[in-house]
Fold this sequence. Notes:
Elements: H1 2-41, E1 57-62, H2 66-81, E2 85-90, H3 93-101, E3 107-113, H4 118-124, E4 128-138, E5 140-145, H5 160-165, E6 169-171, H6 178-189, E7 196-198, H7 202-214, E8 221-224, H8 228-232, E9 235-237, E10 250-257, H9 260-263, H10 265-277, H11 280-291, H12 296-306, H13 308-315
Parallel strand pairs: 1-2, 1-3, 6-7
Antiparallel strand pairs: 3-10, 4-10, 5-8, 5-9
InterPro entries: ABC_Gly_betaine_transp_sub-bd (IPR007210)
Main location: membrane
Subcellular location: Cell membrane
Amino acid sequence: xxxxxxxxxxxxxxxxxxxxxxxxxxxxxxxxxxxxxxxxxxxxxxxxxxxxxxxxxxxxxxxxxxxxxxxxxxxxxxxxxxxxxxxxxxxxxxxxxxxxxxxxxxxxxxxxxxxxxxxxxxxxxxxxxxxxxxxxxxxxxxxxxxxxxxxxxxxxxxxxxxxxxxxxxxxxxxxxxxxxxxxxxxxxxxxxxxxxxxxxxxxxxxxxxxxxxxxxxxxxxxxxxxxxxxxxxxxxxxxxxxxxxxxxxxxxxxxxxxxxxxxxxxxxxxxxxxxxxxxxxxxxxxxxxxxxxxxxxxxxxxxxxxxxxxxxxxxxxxxx
Length: 320
C-alpha cells in the first residue's frame, strides 16, 4: 500500500514538473519575441521607435530670392514625405520674420545673419531661434560686370562719367530685403550722395543685368552668393573697405519660433538633419537647374530622386 502511494506521488510530481516546464518555456518564448520586437523598432521616442510628428500642419514662409526659392520646395517635399501637411507662403523679408516671431508661420528658410537681417533679429530675437545653417558664408556687395573699370565702392565717389551713363542709378530688388538696407547704408557711408537705389524685384534686376551684359553696358546691382548669376555671368563684387555688407559674408539659416521643437518635434529633427548636410555646392546644383529652365519643385524632386541616400538619412525613424 505504501509502495502504491509512493508511485502515485512520483507520477504526480513528474506531471507537475512537466506543467511548470511548459509554462516556463512559453514565458521565455514570449519574452524572446518581445525583445526581438523592441530591437526591430530600434528604440525611439514612441512604441514604434519613431520621432513623433506633433502638430502636423506646417506653414513655411520664404522670400522670392533665388536661394530660398530652391531650398523651400526641397524642405517641403522632405517634410511631406514623413507625414506633414506643408503650406508655403511667399512674403517680403519683414513679414517673413514677423510671421515666425508671432508663431503664424512654423519656420522660414532665408535668414541672413549677422549683418543683412541684423535689425530683424534685434526686433524679434526673443521669440525666435536658429534651427539650422544652410550656408556658412554668403558674401554680399555691390556687384558689376567684370568688364567695368571699377573695383571698389569707393570708385563710385564723384565718378561723373559712370554716374551720367547710369543716370546715377543702382538697380535694386524688393525694398524689404536686407541687402537693400545695406546698400542704402553704403550710399550714405561712402558719400555717394548723387546715387539713388532703385527698388524693383530680384527677377526684374536679373533681367536688366542680363540685358546690359549682352550689350556690354554698365550696371550696378546688389549681389550675393550663392546665386546662379555668379556661375552663369561674368561678375565681380566691389570691394567694401568699411565692411558695410558684413565682410566675409552672412550665415544663411533656418529660423523658427521658440515653440517649434516642442510643437513639431519630427519636423525639428528633419530640419536639423537637412541643414547638417546642406551646403553651397548643393544649393548651386539646384540654382543651376532652375536657371536652365527646370521648375523649382521639379528641381527639388529630381534632386531627391538622384540622392536617395540623403532622403533616407533625413527621414529615417521619423513620423508614422
